[in-house]
Amino acid sequence: MTRLLALTRAGLRSNFGLSVLRHRLFVVKKDRWLAVLIGAAALGVLPSVYGLILLVQNIYLALKPLGQEHALLTLGVLGGQLFILLFGLYYVISAFYFSRDLEFLIPLPLKPWEVMASKFAVILVNEYLTVMIIVLPVLVGYGVIAKSPFAYWVNGVLVYLFLPVIPLALVSLLVVALMRVVNIGRKKDALILIGSVLLIAVSMGLQYVMGRSSRGEVSGQAMTKFFTSPDSLLNIVGSRFPPSIWASKAIAGGFSASGLLNLALFAGTSLLLFAAILVLAEKLFYRGLVGLSEVSGRRRTLSKAQMSQRVSSGRHAVRAVFAREWRIMNRTPIFLLNGILVVLVVPVVFVLMAKAGSGRGDAGSLLKLMTSANPLFTILAAAAFMVVCGSLNGTSSSTFSREGTQFWISRVIPVSAREQVAAKFLHSYLVSVLGTATASAIAVWLLRLGIMPLLAAAGLSLVAGLFLTSLGMMIDLARPLLDWTNPQKAIKQNLNVLLATFADVGVLTALFFVVRFMVGAKVAAGVVLVLLYLGLAAASAAAYAALVRFAERRYREIEV
């Protein structure tokens, strides 16, 4: 147990860079501006947090007269668990099989279950921070509004501590089994990527099938039972993932027999699945690691013409750097999964959530009804959805960090910083365009957007993407994370990605208040759109120019 605690502590310190951060802040006395920057970025999202709190309050007040307010807890818990279930896959694969510290840990006198348990603990801590924005506003908001007793808060803390365990354990079991199968041959990265996509497709397919299977005609007896049982809506919402029902009943039930029973069921299942991970680790973990670092020894003789083409392809500098950036993204499964695949998965997840329900009462029909009231609102809502799907994925804000220790190549190649930034910008913006295109298809399907509203929304998203891409790249360029031991750390555990997300949310919030002011001032819808286009275009041009100037200076200063 002492070895496990020491290993977990070392993993946490490495994951969050606590030693390095303490040294830079208090010994070298550098990067103190980060504390101010993080505080300013956090203040930028306060309006969004306030809006989320209002949403929780409104949902509670709407459900309270029906006696179904407990369903609000299920919404928060289920949202957090599904988020971990869908996106925790990337993190688990990276931490278990692509972390650079594995080559140091395996030769040590450590058992496989100790190594996996320590890495699972590190992932668990990260997921507490990840789902905080989803789950805590619901738990705290519900408790304050309902004036819940002390037992509510005790059970709420315990449920939150166990919350990520079940989805992470399920993902871990699948990943360990997958890696034992796909870790063969010379195309391991491709097999891992294909297997990961299949796991995501299967998990989302199961969610959809479970949701469809729960639909049907509502009888009078079912309606009577719905209004007489306080947990009717809770059971309906959580039917796709039963642990969310146990968690919700445990929180709402407090120290009652029902609350303690559901808490024991929730905690017991979590511990049982965690034990299953440790058992499987002893049998399969190290076997899945064998061969991951192998390099093929097959060589072929290049002709003089082929050698010349390898040394100098004759391509334009921007195209050559773009191709290099594309290869860095595509040849690292973790980068590809967390970057490009996210812009494809998020819209699909939105569809699954929107189609929850039955018949005309599903969320998709409700959303279509809400957006049909005002054409301007329809365009702006669709544009916001496209921006979220296209630009809030961490690709631009990890542009330079993804190079890692290979950034020295960017410094020595005979290509100016201006041209390199242009190539990197095109790559990041292409991912944003892909997300906008996917979200546009979803918007047409769910909202039945006409061609003109669709073009207006997509245009706004693309112009906003120009600004947000430049902003994200500047944030990453200011302090690139180049010394990482795990590819996942460069994109998911990168503070720059968090700062960029705060900045993006702040920009979108500011735009919301600007539009709200113009609508309140009775400005015509067409004028509102034109002013948004012009404002975003001007801001994008200024941001890109600032990025280029900043890069010309920072490329000379960054040390690898």
Low-confidence stretches: 213-228, 293-299, 306-314, 356-367
Number of domains: 2
Question: What would you call the shape?
Answer: globular
Radius of gyration: 25 Å
Give the topology string: H per helix, E per strand. Answer: HHHHHHHHHHHHHHHHHHHHHHHHHH
Count of helical stretches = 26
Q: What is the share of helical residues?
A: over 70%
Structural class: mainly alpha
List the quaternary state of the chains. Answer: single chain
Largest sheet: none
Q: How far apart lie the N and C ends?
A: 37 Å
Please tally the β strands and state the result. Answer: 0
Beta content comes to under 5%
Q: Report mean pLDDT, rounded to a whole number.
A: 75
What is this structure's SSE topology?
Layout: H1 2-16, H2 18-27, H3 33-44, H4 46-63, H5 70-97, H6 102-105, H7 112-130, H8 132-145, H9 150-162, H10 165-182, H11 188-213, H12 220-228, H13 232-237, H14 242-253, H15 257-289, H16 304-311, H17 317-330, H18 333-338, H19 340-354, H20 363-371, H21 375-391, H22 407-412, H23 417-447, H24 451-478, H25 495-520, H26 525-557
Helix pairs in contact: 1-7, 3-25, 4-8, 5-7, 5-8, 5-10, 5-11, 5-14, 7-15, 9-14, 9-15, 10-11, 10-15, 14-15, 17-23, 19-23, 21-23, 21-24, 23-24, 23-26, 24-25, 24-26
